[in-house]
Amino acid sequence: METWELVARESIRDLVARYNASGDAGRFETMLELFTDDAVLVVPDGTHQGRENIRVFFESVAIGNGRRPGGRLIRHFTATHQIDVLDPDAARGRCYYQVLTDAGLDHWGRYVDRYRRTDAGWRFQERQVSIDGTVPGGWAADRLKP
Description:
Elements: H1 3-24, H2 28-32, E1 35-43, E2 46-49, H3 51-61, E3 67-68, E4 72-87, E5 90-101, E6 104-118, E7 121-134
């Protein structure tokens, strides 16, 4: 494996971690900078293209300071992150995620991503979010449908 590929892999791992931390803290400006200008976010109830449309989606399901409606803390955890570096400027990946609130496990699923290297570093070009399950009575049970 060449050095540029190792750098790409570590940069992409950092990208995913920054997405989780920024979103959980309600730092949407910081989180949106992690997407390309023409990025696509695919969620179970629709597709959102471009940073402004992605912003509208995130603001519709979350509020700032790491809290969800009802005052619940939220933390996203990812695991089993597989990264396929296609060339020095493109990669794809997939990982599992689970979301914890102050009440415990809330929902879980998968991210399937396409990444692109830009002048600002590696960014999400496309993120597909699948929800595999929710906890009955949890925050996502009535809001996010698998």
